[in-house]
Specification:
Pfam family, one: MFS_1
Largest sheet: none
Main location: membrane
Low-confidence stretches: none
Membrane topology: Multi-pass membrane protein
Number of helices: 15
Number of domains: 2
Helix content: over 70%
Subcellular location: Membrane
CATH architecture of the largest domain: Up-down Bundle
Radius of gyration: 21 Å
GO molecular function, one term: sodium:proton antiporter activity
Order of helices and strands: HHHHHHHHHHHHHHH
């Protein structure tokens, strides 16, 4: 497999940034289409919501070993194979009428997303050094968050004019375009391949799981992102089915809340030099206060404006907490940053999918007060993690 040519380094970098949002695009573009999918496929809401949770579980699980895979077999070949399989899986998803086939494709797509994201994250480490590396990795974090912001906005219009299948055809076309451009302009950036050693991975993971602050950090990442996914699972059904708005409006709401998540991330970077635990506790207290206010406000108002206004503030705090803890976890083991990042992402996304889907399944949120209850459960779980962290430190 040919190595990346120096003259193509800039184009390959742009392509890497184009691949990074694939996970967000794959999860969020069809959110406004969920109600219509349930109707056309003759399924319960929970069955369609499960397609998102399945993707996230697969995406998270893959990150446990994706770093070792791309270290052993290279970045370029793995990326090409993944993009090719993306094309096939998205076409199958768009053409099938079987929800079980869609489940199978979502498992495959989650795994492929985990591999390509880890592969492109490693690309920046391979190609750049020093200040440039930090610069591009910082941009990568921002670009990753763009996918969930713009995807439902696009998906709302696709659903309105072309139906739910069009979301997956667009993803197939996007993947095919990236595949062609990657084949032409990119190349292998891994200089020395490392053997795939399962025993080494298990040893490293065991050590990291035993490190308490890192373990609690992974839990906080999962619970924080769970707030976003919780709304994604129920939001479109509430806005379209219960409030009577169109799929385009549902797309705009997701766009607005995606901006809230990004704003929380930027706020986390802005306050990066402030003491860690005090700012996390403050964010958690503010989050709880807003959720309690949302709960009581639900007795007086239950409009799309009140729902989105409260959700916007809550998602800012969630983005803030996630950004701080994710950066902490990745930097906790500087000599094993790749493995730490994979483990953090794996645990966080598996926890996110399990907890958010479980809350939606139990509460079946259809009105604002039920959404507030779901938020409250997630915030209280985060508060308990912080409380345990404080007790553990007091006993050391």
């Amino acid at each position: 497999m040919s190595a990346l040519k120096e003259k193509n380094k800039y184009i390959a970098t742009i392509l890497a940034f184009a691949v990074i949002p694939m996970s967000g695009l794959s999860t969020d573009i069809y959110l406004p289409s969920m109600p219509e999918m349930a109707k056309q496929l003759g399924q319960q809401e929970s069955s369609i919501q499960l397609t998102l949770s399945i993707f996230l579980i697969s995406y998270g699980f893959t990150q446990f070993f994706a770093g070792s895979v791309v270290d052993a077999f290279g970045r370029y070949k793995i990326s090409l194979i993944s993009l090719a399989l993306f094309v096939v899986s998205f076409i199958i998803t768009g053409t099938t009428e079987s929800v079980m086939v869609i489940y199978a494709m979502r498992v495959i797509q989650g795994a492929l997303a985990g591999i390509v994201v880890v592969s492109k994250r490693a690309f920046f480490v391979d190609v750049y050094e020093g200040v440039k590396r930090k610069h591009y990795l910082s941009i990568m974090t921002i670009v990753w968050s763009v996918g969930p912001i713009i995807a439902p906005f696009i998906g709302g219009y696709l659903q309105k004019h072309f139906g739910w299948q069009s979301n997956f055809y667009i993803l197939a076309g996007y993947s095919f375009l990236l595949l062609i451009l990657e084949f032409i302009f990119s190349g292998e950036t891994l200089k020395t391949k490392n053997p795939f050693k399962v025993d080494y991975l298990i040893k490293e993971y065991n050590m990291m799981f035993r490190t308490r602050d890192f373990f609690y950090g992974m839990l906080m990442c999962g619970l924080s992102y769970g707030i976003v996914i919780f709304f994604n699972l129920c939001g479109a059904f509430i806005i379209e089915h219960k409030m009577g708005y169109s799929e385009v409006v549902a797309g705009y709401v997701s766009l607005f809340l995606g901006l809230a998540w990004m704003a929380g991330g930027f706020l986390g970077k802005f306050l990066i030099d402030k003491p860690f635990m005090p700012k996390i506790k403050t964010a958690n207290y503010i989050q709880l206060a807003v959720i309690i206010a949302m709960f009581f406000a639900s007795f007086f108002t239950n409009t799309i404006y009140s729902l989105v206004a409260f959700a916007f503030l809550i998602h800012i705090t969630a983005g803030f907490i996630f950004n701080n803890y994710f950066a902490f976890c990745i930097g906790r083991f500087p000599d094993s940053a790749g493995i730490a990042g994979g483990l953090t992402g794996g645990v966080a996304f598996i926890l996110t999918s399990a907890v958010s889907y479980g809350i939606v399944a139990v509460l079946k949120p259809e009105i604002q007060i039920k959404v507030a209850e779901g938020y409250f459960v997630l915030a209280i779980l985060g508060f308990l993690v912080l409380l345990v962290t404080k007790i553990r430190k007091a006993n050391i």
